[in-house]
Amino acid sequence: MNPIQILIADDDLEIAKLIKIFLTNEGYQVLTANNGREALDVMAKESVQLIVLDVMMPEMDGLEVVRTVRAEYDGIPILMLSAKAEDMDKIMGLTTGADDYMVKPFNALELLARVKSLLRRSMLLNTQAQPAQDQDEIQIQSLKINKKLHAVTVEERNVNLTSTEFDILYLLASHPRQVFSAEAIFEAVWKDKFMESNNTVMVHISKLRDKLESELGGVKLIQTVWGVGYKIDP
C-alpha cells in the first residue's frame, strides 16, 4: 500500500518540522524542500499528491512555484502559508492557483484538517472525472461481480452482500487502483450530501471487508490509503 506523499516547502525549518510531525503521525509520507527551486526538483522526481507551500522563500517564491506547478502538473492541491494576513495577499495566492491559504502562526490541527479536506476534494473530483468501467461482470482474482444479477461469487460460492455493500464493491472494483474518499463513496452510492461526522461508509466498508476476507481466505481486497480513502488493486 503506497502512502499519500505530501511536499512541505518552507525555509522555516521549525515550522516545516512541526508540520511534518503532524502529517507523519496521520500516516502520510512527507517530503521537504527549503526553497522554491528545491520544491520543483522534488516534484520532478516524486509522485506528490499535495503541497504545503510557504509564500516567502529564497531563490523562487511560493507564488512562482504555484504558477509552475499549475502549468506542468494537473490537479495537485496546494495549501499556501504566509505571514501576511492582508486580504490582498490571500487573494493573490488563491488567484495564482492555490486551493487554500493559511496565515502564520497557525493551529497545526486546523492545518491537518485542511489538508484532509483538500485531499478528499481532490479524490472526489478525480472520481467524477473518470468514468467507471461499466462492465456486466468484473473478475478480481477468484472474486466475480455480476452487475446484471447483482451477485458476487468466489469460486462459484455466493457471497451474501446487502445492496449497499454490493454498490460499494462495484464502485471500487470498476475503478481499479483509484482511491475513493468516504465522501466520494457516500455521494456515489447514497446519492446524498456527505456530512463531515458521518461514519456510515466506514461501517459498511468494515462489514464488506469481513465478508470478503472470510470467503477469500484472509486476502485483504479493499485497501485503505490512510488519510484519504479506499481502493481495490486488481
Automatic annotation (TrEMBL):
Gene3D superfamilies: 3.40.50.2300, 6.10.250.690, Winged helix-like DNA-binding domain superfamily/Winged helix DNA-binding domain. The modification 4-aspartylphosphate is found at residue 54. CDD domains: REC_OmpR, trans_reg_C. This is Response regulator transcription factor. Residues 5-119 form the Response regulatory domain. Residues 135-234 form the OmpR/PhoB-type domain. SUPFAM superfamilies: CheY-like. It comes from the Bacteria. The keyword Transmembrane does not apply. Residues 135-234 bind DNA. Keywords: DNA-binding, Phosphoprotein, Transcription, Transcription regulation, Two-component regulatory system. PANTHER family: REGULATOR OF RPOS, STAGE 0 SPORULATION PROTEIN A HOMOLOG. The lineage of its organism: Bacteria, Bacillati, Bacillota, Bacilli, Bacillales. Signal peptide: none annotated.
